């Protein structure tokens, strides 16, 4: 007893703040702070932004893996499946904590939290690896966490968000200061997983190679480049291997194929027009990104151009440049969430460019500045001023406040509840993909009784299941995106059913419609 | 139920194959892992003062005079000042004994002859007899068909001083890479072994030594009773026993200081040589000295080091078999795809070998042509089969207790020298 009482009377208590502060390195502390702030922001009003059809698609595809299928309908190589395989592997976490209020698409958004937080941490680590000071590295992270673009698109269930940590990890590994072969080979694997999560991640390939090669020459460079390329290619090869084993590598009658899927994504899909064509889908999308976060998109692009001046940051220019290349010169299909994969690189560009300016200020003011430590505050004040001037104009704060408080899904939930309560489970229902899984898993459990909107036209199996065509459909849920989808995708079966239906119940932008066929209207 | 048991079995085999292939990849590329590794695997700067003296044993058996003369000349031309050479011969080989005595007469101050009179003739016994004649601090071994670099001993002396070593393993390199498809692979194998793998083993504290260009402090060697007179891989065995004693074993590599040798002169003799090595490793494994490594981790590492090579030889054959099995048995897609996983580290190693061949050429100022690279890549599967045959052959001999010494014949390409035969173990 006495020995306990007399032990080190002057020592700090075991878990005092002072003791912890000395134990934890500044970078570790910064990473812990990033994790805390990013998660708090992420979880605030997470289920507020409207559920998208794509989110429903990936949720449904992830959960169909439980039955051993890659998708609830015929998997047709629209995307490599690695993205939703990851979702399926992680869904137990929100389920463990009972998150998502019984809505699977909402629960799946909590899985994305892991990716969001990982992205924030990796932005910091990458900035530190290119010797950006802590202050500016944190500035880059703040731009990522608080950008209205990441708070809307970045928190939704998109494959781009799933690909991002792998992409960023690849950059982090490639920039290994020890120039270690294993980390360069691992970077290849990580990059391949990114590409297999979302094919568009491949645009960062050149930037990765620049980051790898454009450094002071070292003896093992040939090994590193070879290791990066080979391991990357070998991991990538598992996608065509899967197609080959399923007998679906090349196009052929009566089956889907990887060849057809890729051709659809890169050529057959309706283009978004050129960016300089006023009113084209592409120019409007670019404008919507600029409105969403002009500071990040415009400021980041300028910062990326600045990064060209130093060898250490040159890859950032290539990354941002090759990211925007398809936007600026292409005319193919450009999805709205494409920007998601660009945001972290714009943030890194901001951090790196600020740090370059700090160094320039230091050099210029070597004799004039009374204290060298003033350089950081000066640049920081400059960047903050710039943001203050910009933000009221572009509504950063206002947009953030809206994103972090408004609930855009109350109608979705009401519609879902009504359907669950009132529609018999053997009635055939056509529903937007956003709601499909949450309905199907409540008693229908049959993808040809509860049918995702586009499948009635696009999956040949529909005609086998419902030889009567549109008359096989009894209910249609008309969500806010349904009419534009019918038009864009040219869905005739679904359109006819919609035309021959009457509204039974309305919740805001959601209409629940009953299809009137001759049989149902008749005598 | 039977089906699912088969699935589990295939997955387990695949997991082992992945582990094996990753381990091989790690050991083979260890020296290139990072620039730090490169610098630690080289020789330190040469020190001005020669602190140690050397007794070099040159084991000979049915050797031709010009072979012995050439090897001896390179040992006597060393820049190091305190060197004596012991030519080790057997009393059943009068011709070689006569040559040895003649050579010793030409250099009475620095060359002596040790005649082994053991009833059983083999290399370790011959070495033990020669060890009794050694008088200097450090004992070194040079096989009769090898060509040492002139400044080698001066460098080795520096390593003993710098690193406070008990044992120093220098590198041996086969050089006649353009003779045949397998000689190219064989040369690269030596390059990888001495440039990379041995360093990884040294780092782990458990190292099978080589039999040529190896240097041990004499007191230490005498105190452990010299070499095991009944072991086929007496060099590997010595390494194991010294590792167990936690002696400081340093491996050093520099392209200028390698001892040059040549590949076996035919495919059959390459297989015989491989079988002998595999069998030697198995014998050392069966002796069980490795079990006396101090910690559990080190014992696992030792077990892995002694057995892994045979597994790897078999892996080259097992990977296609497991893939075929999964394909023809119509296993579920994820399991079939999993059987392809070992190919990632395997193919990664194949492509990195291209870089290694490039560096091999640069190190030794050889011109490596496009067809050499092509031969390297195309020869890989066949070489795997060859290694697998040797491993299986060794396993067969091991279980039938056949420990005779298969001779390796050399065609003398490195010096235009004739056959070299080592002693029969029986």
Structure, explained:
The complex is a heterodimer of chains A (523) and B (426). Chain A is mainly alpha-helical and 523 residues long. Helices cover 62% and strands 4% of the residues of chain A. In chain A, strands 2-1-3-5-4 form a five-stranded mixed sheet. In chain A, a hairpin with a 2-residue loop joins strand 4 and strand 5. In chain A, helix 3 packs antiparallel against helix 7, helix 4 packs across helix 5 and helix 4 packs across helix 23. The termini of chain B are far apart. The longest helix of chain B has 33 residues. With 426 residues, chain B is α/β, with parallel strands linked by helices. Helix content of chain B is 54%, strand content 9%. Chain B has one domain.
Write a compact overview of the structure shown.
The complex is a heterodimer of chains A (523) and B (426). With 523 residues, chain A is mainly alpha-helical. Chain A folds into two domains: 27-403, no CATH class; 410-521, no CATH class.
Provide key terms for this protein.
heterodimer; A: 523 residues; mainly alpha; five-stranded mixed β-sheet; 28 helices; 5 strands; disordered N terminus; B: 426 residues; alpha/beta; seven-stranded mixed β-sheet; two-stranded parallel ribbon; 14 helices; 9% strand
Per-chain topology:
The complex is a heterodimer of chains A (523) and B (426).
Chain A: H1 2-6, H2 17-23, H3 26-43, H4 53-64, H5 82-90, H6 92-96, H7 104-129, H8 134-146, H9 148-152, H10 159-174, H11 181-197, H12 205-213, H13 221-236, H14 238-245, H15 258-268, H16 281-292, H17 294-306, H18 314-329, H19 343-364, H20 375-394, H21 396-403, H22 410-422, E1 429-431, H23 433-444, E2 450-452, H24 455-458, H25 461-465, E3 475-478, H26 482-489, H27 492-499, E4 501-507, E5 510-515, H28 518-521
Parallel strand pairs in A: 1-2, 1-3
Antiparallel strand pairs in A: 3-5, 4-5
Helix pairs in contact in A: 3-7, 3-8, 4-5, 4-23, 7-8, 7-10, 7-19, 8-19, 10-11, 11-13, 12-18, 16-17, 17-18, 17-19, 18-19, 19-20, 22-23
Chain B: H1 2-28, H2 35-40, E1 54-59, H3 65-76, E2 83-90, H4 94-106, E3 111-116, H5 123-131, E4 138-141, H6 152-163, E5 167-169, E6 172-174, H7 181-204, E7 214-217, H8 218-223, H9 234-244, E8 249-251, E9 259-261, H10 267-287, H11 296-328, H12 333-338, H13 343-363, H14 370-400
Parallel strand pairs in B: 1-2, 1-4, 2-3, 5-8, 6-9
Antiparallel strand pairs in B: 4-7, 5-7
Pfam families (chain A): PMT_2
Subcellular location (chain A): Cell membrane
Protein name (chain A): Phospholipid carrier-dependent glycosyltransferase
């Amino acid at each position: 007893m006495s020995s306990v009482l007399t032990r080190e009377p002057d020592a700090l208590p075991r878990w005092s703040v002072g003791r912890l502060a000395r134990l934890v390195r500044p970078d570790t502390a910064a990473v812990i702070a990033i994790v805390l702030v990013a998660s708090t922001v992420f979880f605030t009003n997470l289920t507020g932004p409207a559920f998208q059809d794509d989110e429903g698609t990936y949720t449904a595809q992830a959960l169909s893996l439980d039955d051993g299928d890659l998708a609830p309908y015929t998997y047709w190589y629209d995307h490599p499946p690695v993205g939703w395989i990851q979702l399926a592997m992680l869904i137990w976490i929100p389920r463990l904590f009972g998150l998502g209020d019984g809505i699977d698409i909402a629960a799946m958004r909590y899985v994305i939290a892991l990716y969001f937080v990982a992205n924030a941490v990796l932005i910091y680590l990458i900035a530190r690896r290119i010797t950006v000071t802590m202050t500016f590295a944190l500035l880059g992270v703040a731009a990522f966490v608080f950008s209205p673009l990441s708070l809307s698109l970045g928190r939704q269930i998109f494959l781009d968000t799933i690909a991002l940590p792998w992409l960023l990890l690849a950059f982090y590994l490639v920039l290994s200061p020890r120039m270690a072969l294993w980390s360069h080979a691992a970077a290849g694997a990580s990059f391949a997983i990114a590409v297999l999560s979302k094919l568009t991640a491949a645009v960062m390939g050149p930037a990765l190679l620049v980051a790898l090669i454009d450094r002071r020459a070292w003896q093992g460079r040939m090994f590193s480049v070879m290791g990066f390329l080979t391991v990357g290619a070998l991991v990538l090869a598992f996608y065509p291997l899967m197609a080959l084993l399923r007998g679906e590598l090349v196009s052929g009658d009566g089956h889907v194929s990887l060849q057809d899927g890729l051709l659809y994504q890169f050529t057959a899909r309706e283009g978004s027009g050129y960016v300089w064509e006023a009113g084209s889908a592409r120019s409007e999308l670019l404008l919507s990104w600029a409105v969403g976060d002009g500071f990040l998109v415009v400021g980041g692009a300028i910062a990326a151009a600045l990064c060209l001046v130093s060898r250490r940051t040159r890859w950032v220019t290539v990354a941002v440049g090759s990211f925007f290349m398809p936007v600026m010169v292409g005319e193919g299909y450009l999805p709205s969430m494409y920007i998601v994969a660009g945001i972290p690189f714009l943030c890194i560009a901001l951090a790196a460019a600020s740090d370059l300016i700090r160094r320039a200020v230091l050099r210029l003011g070597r004799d004039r500045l009374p204290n060298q430590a003033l350089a950081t505050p000066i640049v920081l004040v400059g960047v903050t001023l710039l943001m203050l001037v910009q933000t009221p104009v572009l509504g950063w704060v206002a947009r953030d406040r809206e994103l972090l408080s408004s609930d855009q899904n109350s109608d979705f939930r009401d519609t879902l509840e009504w359907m669950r309560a009132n529609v018999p489970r053997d009635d055939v229902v056509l529903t937007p993909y956003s709601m499909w899984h949450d309905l199907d898993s409540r008693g229908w459990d049959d993808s040809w009784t509860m049918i995702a909107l586009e499948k009635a036209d696009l999956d040949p199996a529909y005609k086998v299941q419902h030889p009567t065509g549109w008359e096989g459909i009894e209910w249609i849920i008309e969500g806010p995106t349904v009419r534009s989808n019918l038009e864009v995708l040219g869905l005739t079966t679904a359109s006819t059913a919609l035309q021959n239906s009457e509204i039974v119940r309305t919740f805001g932008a959601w209409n629940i419609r009953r299809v009137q066929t001759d049989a149902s209207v008749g005598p | 139920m039977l089906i699912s048991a088969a699935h589990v079995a295939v997955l387990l085999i695949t997991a082992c194959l992945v582990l094996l292939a990753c381990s091989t990849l790690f050991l083979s590329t260890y020296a290139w892992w990072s620039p730090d590794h490169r610098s630690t695997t080289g020789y330190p700067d040469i020190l001005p003062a020669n602190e140690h003296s050397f007794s070099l044993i040159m084991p000979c058996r049915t050797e031709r005079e010009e072979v012995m003369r050439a090897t001896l000349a390179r040992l006597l031309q060393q820049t190091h000042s305190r060197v004596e050479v012991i030519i080790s011969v057997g009393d059943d080989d009068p011709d070689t004994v006569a040559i040895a005595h003649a050579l010793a007469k030409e250099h009475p101050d620095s060359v002596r002859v040790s005649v082994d009179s053991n009833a059983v003739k083999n290399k370790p016994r011959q070495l033990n007899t020669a060890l009794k004649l050694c008088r200097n601090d450090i004992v070194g071994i040079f096989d009769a068909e090898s060509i040492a670099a002139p400044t080698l001993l001066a460098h080795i002396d520096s390593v003993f001083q710098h690193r406070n070593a008990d044992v120093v393993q220098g590198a041996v390199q086969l050089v006649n890479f353009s003779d045949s498809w397998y000689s190219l692979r064989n040369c690269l194998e030596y390059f990888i072994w001495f440039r990379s793998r041995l360093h990884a083993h040294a780092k782990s504290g458990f190292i099978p030594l080589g039999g040529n260009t190896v240097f041990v402090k004499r007191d230490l060697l005498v105190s452990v009773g010299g070499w095991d007179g009944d072991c086929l891989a007496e060099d590997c065995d010595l390494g194991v026993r010294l590792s167990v004693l936690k002696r400081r074993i340093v491996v050093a590599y520099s392209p200028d200081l390698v001892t040059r040798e040549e590949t076996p002169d035919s495919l059959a003799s390459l297989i015989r040589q491989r079988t002998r090595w595999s069998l030697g490793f198995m014998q050392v494994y069966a002796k069980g000295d490795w079990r006396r490594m101090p910690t559990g981790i080190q014992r696992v590492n030792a077990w892995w080091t002694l057995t892994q090579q045979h597994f790897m030889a078999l892996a080259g054959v097992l990977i296609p078999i497991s893939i075929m099995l999964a394909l023809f048995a119509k296993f579920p897609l994820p399991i079939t795809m999993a059987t392809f996983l070992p190919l990632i580290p395997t193919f990664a190693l194949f492509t990195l070998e291209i870089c290694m061949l490039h560096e091999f050429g640069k190190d030794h100022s050889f011109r490596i042509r496009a067809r050499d690279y092509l031969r390297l890549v195309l020869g890989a599967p066949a070489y795997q089969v060859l290694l697998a045959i040797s491993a299986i052959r060794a396993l067969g001999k091991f279980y039938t207790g056949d420990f005779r010494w298969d001779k390796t014949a050399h065609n003398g390409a490195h010096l235009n020298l004739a056959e070299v035969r080592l002693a029969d173990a029986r």
